[in-house]
């Protein structure tokens, strides 16, 4: 897999992340030519400036990390991110609404964020660790029909991706919807297993470690 680096969204969402930390994130992302950096909305403009002229995109989180904001807030947050130059957005699903059976609300919220994002790819974080088997199937179908581009497994604040979850999601979406595996991915071996299971993007804060392991295995 020669293009493993292009599967990676290099992530820094710590609440204590500084401008210096974000600068290092971006410089490392340029060095390894990752697909995106993922930052909190406050840092979109700064990251976009640092990455200008490179092939590394800027992604930010919306409704992070709980997903319990009102839909209007998520839409407004998305509009601001687009105005700041974001390339992709990762929105957190309203998990409580899903578990309450409010499926129409959940789908409308995703559709509204997709519309607010204009032509920018939207990834919907479903937090698999908090969902039942049936809820994972239901939400996969909702996201698939919403116009979003990706289903993303986790915020990283809960237990993250499993190959079984990715396979389950893949079996309940169309070929036009992608899967982003995220949450605790700290080895190349794990990342590769998720890709083989159907993920087309890997979200990780351990991207440099994964690349070092990848290089060792491909000498």
Proportion of strand residues? 15-25%
Multimerization state:
single chain
According to CATH, the homologous superfamily is Aldolase class I
Distance between the termini: 12 Å
Radius of gyration: 16 Å
Mean pLDDT: 97
The CATH class is identified as: Alpha Beta
Low confidence ranges = none
Description:
The model has no long low-confidence stretch (mean pLDDT 97). The chain has one domain: Aldolase class I (TIM Barrel, Alpha-Beta Barrel), CATH 3.20.20. The chain has 219 residues and is α/β, with parallel strands linked by helices. The chain has helices at 19-32, 44-50, 71-83, 95-99, 103-116, 133-146, 163-170, 188-197, 207-217; strands at residues 8-11, 36-39, 57-62, 88-92, 122-125, 150-152, 178-182, 201-204. It contains nine helices and eight strands. Strand 1 (8-11), helix 1 (19-32) and strand 2 (36-39) form a beta-alpha-beta unit.
List the helices and strands and how they pair.
Elements: E1 8-11, H1 19-32, E2 36-39, H2 44-50, E3 57-62, H3 71-83, E4 88-92, H4 95-99, H5 103-116, E5 122-125, H6 133-146, E6 150-152, H7 163-170, E7 178-182, H8 188-197, E8 201-204, H9 207-217
Parallel strand pairs: 1-2, 1-8, 2-3, 3-4, 4-5, 5-6, 6-7, 7-8
